[in-house]
Design brief:
The structure holds two protein chains of two kinds. Chain A is α/β, with parallel strands linked by helices. In chain A, 34% of the residues lie in helices and 18% in strands. Chain B is α/β, with parallel strands linked by helices. Classes of the chains: A alpha/beta, B alpha/beta.
């Protein structure tokens, strides 16, 4: 005779949506084995790796806990009802944070240089331990910020990143070492942070920050540190910070220049007060296009860490309402006053009540759509085939001279993108011209320009010399 | 979304206030509408069964759950989730909460600061247990809640 098994609501999704099932079994153990062989997904929720019932799973025979009967050997008879019953636990503080009230002797030793400062002291150090910080990006800025915040004893650190470590990251992203190339950035970040300070509770979010997930992610944290390298995400971070009332410790870097500020505090301005509109796509080059001095994120990222720590401790004068600018070539810091814009749609009039499509807001989509169609493109493999056939092609390299020194395609002619309008006479419209740059972006602009100048036999090398190096000639260095 | 009536919101906050500086806990009972919205119809305040560290731990034992499950079956409702308080701590789930949480259930957390009820939030564990995501809490008299209920009856 089958016995009745009652399934609790959270497990019904794994048990064919049934509230109760009829199953055979002479003992509880046999009945549960029949249950999990019929509904395989239930197994991992009921049993741990050793095959033992999980500690928060209780099994009752009628009204008795089987722990007080014969456990899994408890015999069953007709008409019995077996209930799977969750017990529920929780609490305000995690086991690690619970100690935040008191610092251990090891921690007192670790933080001694903080503890003897009147601005930090025991109270301040406990504040740091109780604080939670979410870092957006584990790259150039995120690396020093995460490492110094960990060393300083931040209790709870979240990191959002979905990237994989690349050789070109190692010049500045000091969270990641040579061994980590090809691995997710989050893995090496976690390893490095816990090596610096095992007391930090690290939460990893291997995802792109989106309008859908941002508010949910921010909710768990006191402060957000923006280490992103693009405008859509920067506006997204800002708006999500304003909406959720979390201070946004902002920075950005380019070549020898950096800037930092603290946005979205209660009475301070936000990023939109400074830049109400994004720049047209392509106008401001990214670090991948324009380069960045490797040390620069080290300086600016540590400024972000410093500001975060000041905000947590409630000491000093944070960069609220001030934009700090660094020109490392001149080694000069300057400061601009920022005012909260009463007309700001985010923090002023509060017209922005939900997160929008930031790619669209920043014109990224239109930029992609307006690029010339595939008839104007050639892949590195196709180019290689045509060269091997002996086709006569004019290869135009529109990169900068210092890039040309790193690597070049054989027989190519260099005219940097900015000089094409003046030097267009050097080109012959009768030639078939293949235009390339590093990744394909600048050459697309050159193709656009030359098309309008009347050139017809033109092709843009898709993915630039970088994709050539990946798919055709691995001896070409990638940079 | 969790739809909840004003009186129940007050009752949860008062339970947290009464139990301060210890944590309070209880069970949320009600119905799941067709569109997934959950509508609270009953609250079962419970005694915190945790024997130590009650200022930052709560425990709902299986025997309380068994009783509540039985009651729910008789009344034709479901256990929607649980509530508990965080005395002098923010209303966000802790690592401990996550380690011990069950999927599907909604977890209401009310922060009680210096004995005064503060913010009230609601959470659900992600399928892969990696984190909690916030669940919207709406008054059962709100348009969204009424609409979900009507759709469910239609």
């Amino acid at each position: 005779m089958p016995k009745r098994v009652l399934i609790p609501t959270p497990l019904r999704q794994y048990a064919g949506k049934s509230e109760s099932l009829q199953l055979e079994g002479k003992t509880i153990g046999e009945l549960l084995r029949n249950l999990t062989s019929q509904y395989g997904d239930l197994k991992k929720h009921l049993f741990n790796e050793e095959g033992k019932l999980r500690s928060f799973v209780n099994v009752y025979l009628n009204d008795e806990d089987i722990r007080y009967l014969q456990k899994e050997d408890t015999p069953l008879k007709d008409g019995d009802t077996v209930s799977i019953v969750p017990s529920i636990a929780g609490g305000a503080v995690s086991s690690a944070l619970q100690q935040a009230v008191e610092l251990s002797n090891d921690e007192i030793k670790r933080y001694s240089r903080h503890l003897i400062m009147p601005e930090v002291g025991m109270d301040g150090q406990k504040k740091l331990k109780a604080a939670s910080v979410l870092l957006i990006g584990a790259g150039g800025l995120g690396s020093p910020a995460a490492m110094y915040l960990a060393a300083a004893g931040i209790g709870f650190m979240g990191i959002v990143d979905f990237d994989v470590v690349d050789f070109s990251n190692l010049q500045r992203q000091i969270l990641h070492g040579t061994n980590a190339v090809g691995q997710p950035k989050l893995a090496s970040a976690r390893h490095r942070i816990l090596d610096i300070n095992p007391n930090v509770e690290v939460m990893l979010y291997e995802t792109r920050l989106t309008s859908e997930n941002a508010l949910g992610l921010f909710r768990d944290y006191d402060f957000v540190v923006d280490g992103t390298d693009n405008f859509p995400t920067r506006y997204l971070v800002n708006d999500a910070c304003v909406l959720s009332g979390k201070p946004n410790v902002y920075a950005s870097i380019f070549r020898f220049e950096g800037q930092a500020s603290v946005f979205a505090t209660k009475n301070g301005p936000c990023y939109r007060c400074l830049y109400p509109e994004p720049p047209p796509p392509g106008l401001v080059p990214s670090c991948a296009e324009g380069g960045v001095l490797g040390v620069l994120p080290g300086i600016i990222g540590t400024i972000q860490a410093t500001e975060t720590i000041k905000l947590i401790l409630g000491v000093g004068e944070p960069l609220i309402g001030r934009l700090l600018l660094l020109d490392a070539l001149q080694m000069r810091f300057r400061e601009l006053k920022l005012r909260k814009n009463p007309e700001c749609p985010a923090c002023g009039t509060r017209q922005i009540t939900t997160l929008i499509d930031y790619e669209q807001f920043c014109g990224v989509q239109q930029a992609q759509e307006s690029s010339p169609g595939s008839e104007w493109e050639i892949t590195p493999l196709e180019l290689k085939q045509r060269l091997d056939r002996g086709d006569k092609l004019f290869i135009l390299d529109v990169r900068e001279p210092h890039e040309y020194q790193i690597c070049r395609l054989e027989g190519s002619h260099l005219i940097p993108l900015g000089e094409i309008p003046q030097r267009v006479a050097e080109l012959n419209s009768a030639d078939e011209i293949i235009v390339h740059c590093k990744m394909g972006g600048r050459s697309a602009k050159a193709v656009d320009f030359l098309r309008q100048a009347g050139f017809k036999k033109l092709k843009n090398l898709k993915g630039g010399i970088d994709l050539w190096a990946q798919t055709v000639d691995p001896s070409v260095p990638r940079y | 979304m969790l739809c909840i009536d004003e009186a129940s919101l007050v009752a949860i906050k008062e339970h947290g206030q009464r139990s301060y500086p210890e944590e309070c806990c209880g069970i949320l009972l009600g119905k799941v509408f067709d569109d997934g919205t959950r509508n609270l119809t009953e609250l079962h305040p419970l005694e915190n069964r945790q024997t130590e560290s009650r200022q930052n731990r709560f425990l709902i034992e299986a025997r309380d759950m068994l009783r509540a499950e039985k009651h729910a079956r008789e009344k034709g409702v479901d256990i929607l989730g649980f509530y508990h308080s965080h005395p002098d701590h923010e209303a966000r789930p802790s690592q401990f909460d996550r380690e011990h949480a069950w999927p599907w259930y909604y977890y209401i957390i009310v922060s009680i600061s210096q004995g005064i009820p503060g913010s009230l939030t609601c959470w659900e564990l992600d399928e892969d247990r990696s984190r909690f995501h916030a669940v919207e809490v709406g008054l059962s008299t709100s348009a969204a809640c009424i609409k979900s209920e009507e759709k469910s009856h239609a």
